Amino acid sequence: MSEDELPEDNPWDDVPLLEVVVLHVKDAVAATEGGADRLLLVAEPGDVGVSPDAAAVSAVVKATDLPVRVMLRRGVGHDITSDGVDALAEFAEMASTLGAAGFSFGFLDSLLEIDVEACSELASRVRLPWTFHRGFDASLNTRRAWRDVVDLPGLDAVASAGSSRGMSAGADELLAYVANPRVAAILMASGALEPEQVPWLVRAGVRQFGVGATVRPGRSWTRSFVDVDHVRTWRMLLDDAVARARGIPVD
Question: What sign has the CA pseudo-torsion 70, 75, 76, 80?
Fold first, then answer.
């Protein structure tokens, strides 16, 4: 396969998935009540976030019946050493015993290309489904990055806004790439996602969506918590968009 080719199997499912980023139990409870499908537990949120501690993993898993994915990332940057992979694998094993249903991680090499070797190594050791986090958008060659991630073991989502600057800058690029059904199958649209972008993404085949600050009053990570009504609004928006895309009458 040439670097400009992408496989075109694995068509997307028609059920929309809503993942909500949470920091603690209060967030998790609100996201669950609001209709989220899955939670992503992080600490020190931002464009990507870092790993939470064991106490947070235990508390959040006990507070919800939703699957909880846990961020595997230490410090800044998207590169990693073999020792770093070992450390994250050890943390992942602990998180798994506490009930984590999956993980979010991803690594780039010195050329800002997907570090296939490091990603594959950690994926083989965690042995649970995982998401390539928003670090994907820092890759230098997007087409090559999509080619490199589609066959990573255990990967079932790539969190992307199409640009490191967020969805407002990258939505058009995302729409171009999801013309390939296999990209659409694993893309989780996230990164300053706005409601008006959802119908276009849904019609293009996207069925996974991640939200963070947009479900918090004032979009503040430090001054507000996940709000039940904000999550419920996103739930209704996704369900409505998919129903309309399938031609199902909506009241």
Answer: negative
What's the pLDDT at 7?
A: 42
Q: What is the pLDDT of residue 12?
A: 40
Q: What is the pLDDT of residue 209?
A: 98
| Position 218, amino acid | G
Residue type, 140: L
Quick check: pTM over 0.85? yes
CB atoms under 10 Å from CB of 188, counted, come to 26
What dihedral angle (degrees, nearest 10) is formed by the CA atoms of 43, 45, 49, 50? -20
Alpha-carbon distance of 199 to 196, in angstroms, equals: 7
Residue 235 φ/ψ, nearest 5 degrees: -60, -50
Q: Around Cβ 240, how many Cβ atoms within 10 Å?
A: 17
What would the pLDDT profile of 78-87 be if each residue is shown by its tens digit?
999 999 999 9
Average pLDDT, the chain: 91
Asked if 19 contacts 208 with a C-beta cutoff of 8 angstroms, the reply is yes
The string of pLDDT tens digits covering residues 152-204 is 999 999 999 999 899 999 999 899 999 998 999 999 999 999 999 999 999 99
Q: How many helices (H) and strands (E) does the chain have?
A: 9, 8
Q: Are 138 and 110 in contact (CB under 8 A)?
A: no
Q: Decide: residue 170, CB within 10 A, 0-12 exposed, 13-18 middle, 19+ buried.
A: buried
Q: At 193, which amino acid appears? A: L
Residue type, 36: A
Pair 223, 207: CB distance under 8 Å: no
Return the sign of the alpha-carbon dihedral for residues 149, 155, 157, 159.
Answer: negative
Q: Which two tokens stand for residue 179?
A: 């013309």
